[in-house]
Design goal:
The complex is a heterotrimer.
Chain A (H helix, E strand, L loop, with lengths): L7 H9 L5 H19 L2 E4 L1 H16 L10 E5 L26 H9 L2 E6 L33 H8 L5 E5 L6 H7 L2 E4 L20 E5 L2 H11 L29 E5 L9 H16 L3 E5 L7 H16 L18 H12 L2 H14 L5 H24 L2 E5 L15 H5 L6 H5 L4 E9 L2 E9 L4 H14 L14
Chain B lengths: L4 H10 L6 H18 L23 E2 L9 H5 L5 E2 L2 E4 L5
Antiparallel strand pairs in B: 2-3
Chain C lengths: L2 E12 L36 E2 H13 L3 E2 L2 E2 L2 E4 L9 E4 L6 E10 L2 E14 L3 E3 L6 E4 L6 E7 L6 H17 L12 E11 L9 E6 L2 H20 L7 E6 L4 E4 L12 E2 L6 E2 L2 H10 L4 H12 L3 H8 L2 H13 L3 H19 L10 H12 L5 H14 L3 H8 L7 H14 L1 H8 L4 H13 L6 H12 L2
Parallel strand pairs in C: 13-14
Antiparallel strand pairs in C: 1-11, 1-12, 3-7, 4-17, 5-6, 5-16, 7-8, 8-11, 9-10, 12-13, 14-15
Helix pairs in contact in C: 1-4, 2-3, 5-6, 6-8, 7-8, 7-9, 9-10, 12-14, 12-15, 13-14, 14-15
The chains are: A alpha/beta, B mainly alpha, C alpha+beta.
Chain lengths: 488, 95, 475
């Protein structure tokens, strides 16, 4: 058993008993990274020196009895989360050399706990994409099959956890960017309720939808990480003041009488047979555990994807306007005048998908189209929100597949934006409604992982974790990706 | 086409993006497809529906009027491609 | 055909908060470039704004003082445009739901009171500053980026440049009174843009609107409008048409000229700011703010009449600026003759302020110094006319009055013997006037007093001079 293959709670036991040191744990992961990284390309930056130094500090903490659940645990952070003194590129040429002078609030929280940052992970440029192919630097490969995508946009974080490059990772989810790659890589990924985790320091894609969340190897770890990263932040006006629960207290196997909603809309067109079957088997598992399965309908959910593309692109067009080469980032070398400098800089710095969304968003907000597109989408957002509220009158959580397909081939959808957008069809509605959602591995289809999505009411992460944990205990997902070799 | 070539050119200018003729062509086709797709929303009657700009219904989030130290100028300017005399430098602007 | 002008004004006023609108950087004017900057006001990727509560309170205060309706529900929006002084490439402002709307101010022109409507007041952030001194590029300083502003948009209710001038004066006065802005145009804390069109008298249709920029003082606004209205009428009378454009006031040439702007039409793509939540001003909050409002000009004016016995004219002038009124009250606290103080403020003080173009708080004379000067007169140390000389020196140098009197030897000659010798000499040197006086010409007396003053360089005690002169002449 290699240290790198352990979960947070397993590592925690060893660290607490001082059977291993944080330095040993860190070195084990750094070795693992050297071994598998050339195959999967999950990371943009590896912070080896910083990690080793932090590991020594963590060991000090443990020695002095100042340790907590995450002290000495190595993490990988998506490269759109601001890390002071460490490049934060968003996988964009625009920010290739950008070094933030400040930490995101979540990073501050992790560092305070004594977490060890191993590196920054690859993503679709500015988190726009579902395959991590839109990175300006590298294409991350799915550890289960190197010819396939890990999903996106947090594909680097998902692949890193699947390949044991860290004990846990942080990602961001705007339309499915944590849950979908978690599903495709066979790991646990959660998007918390909008406003639960501070967005301060998360490079904005679509401000009203973005949310930071964890990738972990099991549900228990998800609860542990959540305990640390949530909480009100006075730097984020949309972060909520709620009492901090202990999410590990929800990790119970009992779900008797819990009402689980199954929406027919989540089994619609485009779903692969293998995915459908695996998820239906999972529903049976939950039923056998004593949950009540209720058929529900969320009729407006089919409008979530078009509404999402308008809202997210509109906000993105504004959020990404600041990249002009004046204060930071890429700047053009040759231009005629100021306006030309803006245009050349931005055209050189952004990749195609980013430009496509900026164009769509600018169009949707422009004079004469605002009401027809942006305002319309916000109204549809109201309908979807109400839809979920109605559904949650009948059930406690809603389950379904995270993604309509298993991991697809690299290049397969690269030239068809609409086909790519469909990868998020089951996840975007959750962002539109600001709800929490988790993806947990529930089986394999053709040797590739299938994810089960569990959606809850606002701030009902506890109940989601309860269902996820009960399912996990009853249906252990022990498979490991074979394409990279050398797992447990 | 849901969007014309000249509209694409106009939007590109608004967004401060520069495209070659081929790219304009490509964007016109792709954006048209996407716009056709999002036009699906027009199937819905939203006449009496209020738009939702903020999903979590909170209001009046303020900070007190307190001054805290600003950031060291070296750090503020650290990522600037061009700087001079403690300032960011841009091409000459004629007003 | 007779034409009339239609004038609307947009005023931006910086609010007097300690910190910026969305971050904790100081709002202090000046400072080395980019030293009042943090990741938030620099718009670094990932940063978020948090609204300064005082900004809302100050805007509501201004709204209440300007008779506005205060919105119960208000929100922030993004105004998108690219410019190097705008770090996020959008300005956080308010679009369709401003904090205050539908107010008015009353102005007085030719003895008549006129209401000028205020369409809206909204809050927003200021941009940074571009410095153009460099030869091969422009430099950007973001110290000012994120300083809170209110934008006050008038209805196009003004028809003459004089009305516009009166409106601005009144508005500035009220903003100063409410203590929400110091309104210093030279530091850019008050900025004015104006829209003007002309139309035939009697017509209800509006003419083509011209926007005027680079207006650095209220007088400049007035002069630019005068020029621009004449220009537009001339164009129309010559059969031409007005082209919608932005023109720039050229102060030295005294003309407006077209600005070299980029051709493209603005499309600000406003949308609700997702990073900030709505603002709800409850009735309770509004009343709390109303209670915190300082005394308004007309109340102060009435109080000055009742409490200090000032004539209405004096009270009006003294309260026309809050700073002047404050100065007055500080003086009166230590000096029990309000009318004397008001005479000085309206007289010498105002004259020198006009001459130098300085505001009362930019003058080195403090209320305590003026009181000292007045006491020097009362105690017979200096004469009233010498006091004016001393005051001028105080105004210029900020020296204490007694120091000036000492340094320049300006003390009155109140020694009877000394004065009598001088007077005797004057009588000998002016036989003609003495003759006239004795023949009943009272005016001659004045001339002789003048000669005594001249001989003593104004230092002769006037009462004593009169007394001795009469004695000597009747000898």
């Amino acid at each position: 058993m290699e240290l790198y293959s352990l979960t947070i709670h397993e590592l925690r036991e060893l660290l607490k008993k001082r059977e291993v040191s944080a330095l040993e744990v860190t070195k084990s992961y750094l070795e693992r990274i050297k071994e598998v990284e050339p195959k999967i390309d999950a990371l943009i930056t590896i912070t080896e020196d910083f990690a080793l130094q932090r590991a020594k500090e963590a060991d000090e903490k443990i020695k002095n009895g100042e340790d907590t659940d995450l002290t000495g645990i190595p993490v990988i952070i998506k490269d759109n989360i601001s890390t002071e003194g460490i490049k934060t590129t968003c996988s964009s040429k625009m920010l290739e050399n950008y070094i933030p002078p400040y930490n995101a609030t979540v990073v501050e929280k992790l560092l305070e706990e004594g977490v060890i940052i191993l590196g920054k992970s690859n993503l679709d440029e500015f988190a726009m994409g579902s395959s991590t192919e839109n990175s300006a630097f590298k294409t991350t490969k799915n550890p289960w099959d190197l010819s396939r995508v890990p999903g996106g946009s947090s594909g680097g974080s998902a692949a890193a956890i699947a390949a044991d490059e860290a004990a846990f990772a942080l990602g961001s989810d705007t339309g499915g960017s944590i849950r979908q790659p978690a599903s495709l890589c066979g790991v646990v990924g959660m998007k918390p309720t909008y406003g639960l985790v501070s967005r301060y320091g998360l490079v904005a894609f679509a401000s009203s939808l973005d949310q930071i969340g964890p990738f972990t190897k099991d549900v228990t770890d998800c609860a542990i990480v959540l305990n640390t990263i949530i909480g009100h932040d006075s730097k984020d006006s949309t972060s909520l003041k709620i009492d901090k629960p202990d999410y590990t207290s929800y990790l119970k196997e009992d779900i008797k009488g819990l009402r689980i909603g199954v929406a027919k809309e989540f089994f619609g067109e485009g779903i692969e047979e293998g995915v459908k079957e695996t998820v239906q088997e999972s529903i049976k598992v939950l039923q056998d555990l004593g949950a009540e399965i209720i058929d529900i309908s969320i009729p407006y959910v089919e409008y979530a994807l078009p509404a999402y593309y308008i809202i997210a692109s509109a906000e993105a067009s504004s959020n990404l306007a600041r990249y002009d080469g004046i204060r930071y980032g890429h700047i053009a070398e040759k231009y005629e005048d100021l306006i030309d400098m803006y245009m050349v800089t931005r055209s050189e710095g952004f990749g195609k998908e980013v430009k496509r969304r900026i164009m769509l968003g600018t169009y949707a907000l422009s004079s004469g189209y605002y009401d027809a597109y942006y305002k319309k989408a916000l109204k549809v957002r109201t309908l979807i929100k109400n839809d979920f509220e109605k559904a949650f009158e009948k059930c406690d959580v809603i389950i379904g597949p995270t993604s309509p397909t298993v991991a697809f081939k690299i290049g397969e959808r690269a030239n068809d934006p609409l086909a790519m957008y469909l990868a998020d069809i089951y996840t975007v509605s959750v962002n539109i409604a600001g709800l929490p959602g988790i993806s947990i591995p529930c089986g394999l289809s053709d040797g590739l992982p299938v994810g089960l999505q569990i959606i809850g009411r606002h701030f009902d992460e506890g109940k989601i974790l309860n269902v996820a944990y009960a399912f996990e205990q009853a249906n252990k997902f022990n498979a490991k990706p074979q394409a990279i070799g050398g797992a447990r | 086409m849901a969007i014309s070539r000249s509209e694409v050119e106009h939007v590109a200018k608004l967004a401060r993006l520069k495209f070659s003729q081929e790219e304009i062509e490509e964007f016109t086709v792709q954006l048209s497809k996407i716009i056709d797709y999002v036009n699906k929303l027009n199937e819905l009657d939203t006449e009496n529906v209020e738009p939702t700009a903020h999903i979590v219904p909170i209001h009046n989030v303020f900070r007190e009027d307190e001054v805290k130290p600003s950031m060291d100028r070296d750090k503020i300017l650290m990522n600037a491609p061009y700087k001079e005399n403690g300032c960011f430098k841009v091409p000459k602007i004629i007003e | 055909m007779k034409y009339e002008a239609v004038i609307g004004l947009e005023v931006h006023a910086e609010l007097l908060t300690e910190s910026k609108i969305f971050c904790s950087c100081t709002t202090k004017f000046g400072g080395e470039p980019n030293t009042h900057v943090c990741p938030v006001c620099l718009g670094l990727p990932g940063t978020l704004p948090v609204l300064n509560k005082k900004v809302v309170e100050y805007a509501v205060r201004a709204g209440l003082a300007l008779n506005c309706t205060i919105a119960n529900f208000s929100k922030m929006d993004r105004k998108n445009y690219f410019y190097p002084d705008l770090p996020k490439a959008y300005q956080i402002s308010q679009y369709d739901l401003p904090l205050c709307s539908n107010g008015y101010v009353e102005i007085e022109v030719d003895g008549k009171v006129k209401k000028i409507g205020i369409k809206r007041i909204h809050i927003e952030e200021d941009a940074g500053k571009l410095l153009h001194e460099n030869t091969d590029g422009s430099l950007v300083d973001y110290n000012r980026a994120g300083v809170p502003l209110i934008e006050i948009v008038s209805e196009p209710d003004m028809t003459t440049p004089e009305e516009a001038y009166q409106y601005l004066t009144k508005l500035k006065n009220i903003l100063e009174y409410t203590e929400v802005s110091d309104c210093k145009m030279q530091e850019g804390s008050l900025r004015v843009d104006t829209n003007v069109s002309v139309r035939p008298v009697g017509s209800t249709e509006l003419g083509t609107k011209i926007e005027l920029k680079n207006l650095n003082s209220f007088r400049a606004v007035q002069k630019a409008l005068e020029y621009e209205i004449k220009r537009q009428i001339k164009v129309l009378e010559e059969g031409g048409t007005i082209v919608q454009e932005t023109r720039r006031w050229n102060e030295s040439k005294g003309i407006t000229e077209p600005m070299r702007t980029k051709e493209e039409a603005h499309d600000y793509r406003y949308f609700p700011e997702p990073d900030l939540v709505p603002i709800i001003v409850t009735d309770e909050w509004k009343e709390e703010i109303r209670k915190s409002l300082p005394e308004m000009p007309h109340h102060k004016r009435e109080r000055f009449i009742a409490e200090y016995g000032l004539p209405e004219y004096d009270a009006k002038i003294i309260t026309s600026s809050k700073k002047m009124a404050d100065f007055f009250e500080k003086c009166v606290l230590e000096y029990d003759s309000p009318k004397t103080v008001s005479n000085w403020l309206m007289g010498e003080f105002s004259r020198l302020m006009n001459e130098t173009g300085k505001e009362i708080d930019e003058v080195p004379v403090t209320p305590q110094m003026l009181v000292k000067l007045l006491k020097l007169i009362d105690n017979g140390v200096i004469s009233g006319s010498i006091a004016k000389t001393v005051f001028e020196e105080m105004f210029g140098t900020g020296k204490e009055p007694e120091v000036i009197v000492e340094e320049k030897g300006l003390k009155q000659i109140a020694n009877e013997n000394e004065l009598r010798e001088i007077i005797k000499k004057v009588i000998v040197e002016n036989p003609k006037s003495v003759e006239d006086y004795k023949n009943g010409k009272e005016k001659a007396m004045g001339f002789l007093v003048g000669q005594v003053m001249k001989a003593t360089k104004g230092k002769a005690n006037p009462q004593l001079t009169n007394q001795i002169l009469k004695e000597e002449l009747s000898k």
